[in-house]
Specification:
The chain is mainly α. It has one domain. It is 78% helix and 0% strand. The protein is built from ten helices and no strands. The model has no long low-confidence stretch (mean pLDDT 86).
Length: 258
């Protein structure tokens, strides 16, 4: 029965992530941390390992749909893997300091919340022009990949949370191309990050696999539901939810529970 709950959690996270274009990681993380009462480091490792499934499934689907700039994905993925390695080494020093991890994730969720509120109230991400390549120099793409990879190594978030909006707002990529290229690049960061977390013994493997399978299936349905809902309203509502989540993380740093 316990694993049925994990499967349903992954499924719902995948549906909502696919519907909002954020991926399931940002939704699974607080559920694993607070709903299942995982240790902060274990929540990061388990969530990142689960995301390998959704990133791989999403990358495969977007490659089939020709939504991937393969050259950009290769550059971001390669530099991102280097960033993940450095971030994972840093995480090794932090993993026994749960309060610090909660503090870092709390700050990260403020960024998620503000982004979703901004997009929801503004009317979504800029549509951009149809294109087959993501604009920007090799140095900009490599720097972006390394930065987000480092972040992923520490807090387990990076794809839909940071890489997609960065490609759109910083490099001017069309939305579909940004999402597809992000997934194709991020899958390698997730695999390497997950390998490090397994080595650091901060992954509950059965839970990660169950969540990942559920989220991978849910993401397919979420993407199909986009036309039936107002995504801007949903993003604004979830932006408010993530503000609460960020406060919950931040206040734990000072032993306040909400």
């Amino acid at each position: 029965m316990e694993f049925v709950i994990y499967l349903i959690t992954g499924l719902l996270a995948g549906v909502i992530g696919g519907l909002l274009g954020t991926g399931g990681c940002a939704l699974m993380m607080p559920v694993v941390r607070f709903g299942f009462h995982f240790d902060p480091a274990l929540a990061v490792g388990t969530t990142l390992t689960a995301v390998v499934f959704t990133a791989a499934a999403g990358a495969y689907q977007h490659i089939k749909m020709k939504n991937v700039d393969r050259t950009t994905a290769l550059r971001i993925g390669a530099s991102g893997v280097l960033g993940v390695i450095l971030g994972s080494v840093a995480f090794g020093y932090l993993k026994d300091y749960g309060r610090i991890i909660d503090l870092i994730i709390g700050v990260a969720f403020i960024i998620v919340a503000l982004r979703m509120l901004f997009e929801g109230l503004r009317g979504g991400m800029p549509a951009g022009q149809e294109a087959t390549a993501v604009p920007g120099s090799t140095a900009a793409k490599s720097g972006l990949g390394a930065s987000i990879g480092f972040l992923t190594g520490i807090i387990g978030l990076g794809g839909g949370y940071a890489l997609v909006p960065s490609l759109i707002y910083f490099l001017g990529s069309p939305v579909k191309l940004a999402i597809g290229t992000s997934m194709a690049a991020f899958v390698w960061m997730a695999i390497v990050g997950s390998a490090f977390k397994l080595y650091q013994q901060v992954v509950n493997v059965p839970v990660a696999v169950t969540l990942g399978i559920g989220a991978a299936v849910g993401a397919v349905f979420g993407a199909k539901l986009v036309a039936r809902f107002n995504p801007n309203l949903l993003k604004a509502l979830f932006g408010l939810l993530f503000l609460y989540v960020s406060l919950k993380y931040l206040l734990l740093f000072v032993d306040v529970h909400i």
